[in-house]
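Objective 1.3, modelling of assemblies. Example input:
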Amino acid sequence: RKEVEQDPGPFNVPEGATVAFNCTYSNSASQSFFWYRQDCRKEPKLLMSVYSSGNEDGRFTAQLNRASQYISLLIRDSKLSDSATYLCVVEDNDMRFGAGTRLTVKP
Amino acid sequence: EPEVTQTPSHQVTQMGQEVILRCVPISNHLYFYWYRQILGQKVEFLVSFYNNEISEKSEIFDDQFSVERPDGSNFTLKIRSTKLEDSAMYFCASSALYPGTDNQPQHFGDGTRLSIL
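Predicted structure (tokens):
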């Protein structure tokens, strides 16, 4: 079983659309959760941490459901610059990356 | 904003040769990591390092690999007797606190692209 699983996409959406990404993880002892974004051939960059109570940063909302071992990321009013691969990352003693969900926002 | 720096940005090496990838973590960070990403695949954890010793390592990190913190600033990954399948992007990362502590993220360097010929 994959440790961190994401829908690979690709998601192709028009500007202004709302898009949601999902992620499941297998280790119930995982302690920290993040969304990173990765542009083509670049390093992963932290987008936001994910807290149990859910958290929002501008157009981005992240949620965590520990009981279901499920993490989500919602992007509202998507911009062209949001085009990237979004990586779900789960951390206990080390970081486990999902394979990423590719998003393309089109004009 | 402080950042993790890696050198070189691109390394081309003949198969069988040794290669050393270098990283300068963020100065007040205590935990250091190496990851690799084969082209088109996901980021894979290699090793974590704290207090001058390896904390965790993955099954990828076999005897071919070693890490070292030779001085107060550098953190290196050595790959001995490189193979074609070692070709990948190698990312260094650092964090201030222990992995899994209070959502403290890791900060990544730009990566070194390693090409084995």
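Chain A has a mean pLDDT of 91.
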